[in-house]
Amino acid sequence: MEVLKLLAIVTLYGNFTTMGVVAYTPDGISPDEIGRVALYMVEGGVERSAHGLARVGDMDFFAGSLFNLEPGRAYEVRVEFYGRDGSLIAEGTASGATRQEPTILETRSAVYVSPAGDDSNDGTLQRPLATLAAALERVEGGTTIFMREGTYFEGDLRARAAAAADAPIVVAAFQGETPILSGADPQLIQSEWELQGTVYSAPFSGMTWNVTMEEKATGEFFRLYPLRSKSEIESGRSRYGQEELTFEQLGFTGAYHCDGDNIHIVTPGGGISDYRVYASRFTYAVHLQGVSHYAFDGIEFRHYGKGDYGRAIGLFDSDENLIRNCSFLYSNSGVWLKGDSSNNTIEHSLFLDDLAHWHFSYTKGDYGWNYHSQIETGAVYTDGRYTGRGLVIRHNHIENLFDGAHLCPWVEVNELTSETDFSYNTVLNVADDFVETDGYSRNVRIVGNYMDRSLSGISLAQALDGPTFIIRNVIANSGMSHQANDPYDYDYEGYPIKTNGGHGADIGSGPVFFYHNTAWTADPTSRAWLVKDALWRYFVFRNNIWCGKAMGIDVWHPPLSPVDWQYDCIYHERGPFMRMGRQPLRTLGVAQTVTGTFQNCISAYPEFVNPTAGDFELLDGSPLIDAGVPVPGINDDFNGEAPDIGAFERD
Fold it and tell me: Got the DSSP string for 104-118?
């Protein structure tokens, strides 16, 4: 007799090439009774297996993702709930669609802005306005604000006008031109500074968290470090613990102090006439709150961050906004998201700063005025009370920041998955983490990124609740940042994945799935994997490459949290394959016997094309070609007899 199966409620949430799947445990069934949840894609009446779902924290629902989808297309799925005894107890189906690729519509009207304009003009091409502030006050939905070439010293602007999908508000560069929105005080750029000993001073009201200098001869920019007193500026030293360090030892290329009435500066070298000084007088450029369907295209943002939560663009309770082809230079954050802000896209943009050379412990501690809280936000930052869904950060270039990006909120405010995609970005030379999932990481997907030079790589400290997907990323040169090699700082270890510390360390990360990543570093002290003192619900590894110089896997405080580790390449040039506390496990075979995992793993050099030049393709004859395992929904389109191990599949 056929057993009656219960009906499960299934919902879908589509981004452009991914889709989140959430399946709720049927009434009368405890989530603890569920052994596994299978997912199938249904196309033309034919089913094919996709990646299974994982329980989200202690909630009564399970979640997972579909990958490699097409934008703007409908999809159908079926979900099966199995008990711990393997019996099928419930099923459900759902249909949904991915989002269309974003486009910037041609609007029905236009307003023009130029530094040579006048805010009393009518805003036509011939009679432009002078400020973006005036344009934002005049526009309505269905309008493009065209900004002409030049620098606009504006900030703390509010976007209030309502827009809609068919009537957006667009702020765009005029064709072939580069408008610059600057938060700097123009009076200080070429001000008559007063020299007092080695310190230059000028009038400046209040405090600012952002001062940058540009060397006129070279065009090189230097971020200045804020200090507590003018006496520190004058002495060229600052206290760190029980000792005083020089500015050179602290990694400062210039420093400043604001006393409420004046700003005092020590230059990176030479006289102040050799520089332009950019002291931020605005906390942000443009703030969107409760509005949607805005687009920013081709705008350059510079020098924002006077007050706390400094950023160029703020999206608070604002949906369906697009930031494309913009530049965010020397601002404390690029884009800050808070509240119920959903389906926002940040793509093809540049985020550049000069934050990767300061003394790490000084900056992270109270010695440095807790300055890390102002700059440890990254290119894109999701606020502690961010509740949005569908954030897509893709195809951006992020360089010389303290952290690359922060993807997850710290405060649990609802029971939804976030459906965040961080994909195909380039992240170079960051002081701390390439990208952080620290916080509530529910259906967060980190896919296809190239990352080079950091202290630690991807931070899961802690990626609470889950699931988190880390797929086909290159994680290069962890432990090769200035902070990891600073002779005047603590001897920090670098590692490709950070699992220890952070909010919820006593709870541990939710399920994390690692597929087809390549991690390699030139750090001579590196481990392929380092686990300090960490908990997690479970980790799953398939088809990854982890390369260490000094050791394979180092677990400081065993036992290792639950792990399903198969078909990876774990390579180490010297030392044991694994160390569990003080116990060395010399070879892969010994580790397999002792831990019961690492089945079908390989401990051999991958044979990259040129890792020191950043080319992590596999050479002909690599032992990793066709050495992986199929993972439904992840590598369905592999070539050859089996998938290749690592981030790249050979043709």
Answer: -PPPSEEEEE-TT--
394 with 490, same domain: the answer is: yes
Which of 451, 584, 472 lies closest to 527 in space, CA to CA?
A: 584
In a 13 Å sphere around the CA of 30, the CA atoms on its Cβ side amount to 3
Residue 86's contacts (CB-CB under 8 Å, 6 or more residues apart) are 35
Residue type, 24: Y
519 and 394 within one domain: yes
CB 183 within 8 Å of CB 280: yes
Count of beta carbons in the 10 Å neighbourhood of residue 11: 16
**Which tokens belong to 566?**
């198969």
Nearest-Å Rg of the Cα atoms of the chain is: 26
pTM for this prediction: 0.97
In a domain, residue 144? The reply is: no
Confidence of residue 190 (pLDDT cuts 50, 70, 90): confident
Domains contained in the chain, number: 3
Yes or no: say if 38 and 49 are a contact pair by the CB < 8 Å rule.
Answer: yes
Taking the alpha carbons of 174, 179, 181, 187 in that order, is the dihedral positive or negative? negative
User: Would the pLDDT of 98 be above 50?
Assistant: yes
Q: Is 533 exposed, middle or buried (0-12, 13-18, 19+ CB in 10 A)?
A: exposed
Instruction: Decide which of 231, 259, 279 is a domain's last residue.
Output: 279
pLDDT tens digit sequence for 288-323: 999 999 999 999 999 999 999 999 999 999 999 999
Asked if the structure places residue 492 within a domain, the reply is yes
Residue type, 392: V
- Among 76, 97, 118, identify where a domain stops: 97
Q: Domain range spanning residue 55?
A: 6-97
- Among residues 150, 63, 5, 127, which one has the least CA distance to residue 468? 63
Residues 270 and 371 in one domain: no
Residue with the two structure tokens 């003009």: 121
